[in-house]
Amino acid sequence: MEIAVFLPAGLLGLEPVTDGWERFSLKPAPGVLARIAVTVPTPRGEIEIVQAGDELSLRLPPGVTAVCNGHELQGESIVVAALSVE
After folding, report:
1. Looking at residue 18, what DSSP letter applies?
2. Which helix H or strand E contains 9, and what residues bound it?
3. Which residues are CB-neighbours of 5 under 8 A, at least 6 positions away?
4. What is the pLDDT of residues 8-26, one digit of tens each?
5. pTM across the whole model
6. So where are the chain's domains?
7. Separation between Cα atoms, residue 5 and residue 65, nearest integer Å
8. Class of domain 3-82 (CATH, top level)
């Protein structure tokens, strides 16, 4: 298995909560990186995430919910939220 598979989980704390990634958790911990951009293929479509500082930008497939720092984020279009990184 390639190491790239583990990068989204390690850098952004991505973890499916339900089968098929209908609901997933996101716990950003970028460390020393100023910007992180990942695309995660899932059975429901691609999840695109960009984090720059405390700004988080997501593109979610239809019917997918992201849970981040107690916030539920959903929608087919890009969602931008200023979140404190814990």
Report:
1. S
2. helix 7-12
3. none
4. 677 788 889 999 899 999 8
5. 0.78
6. 3-82
7. 21
8. mainly beta
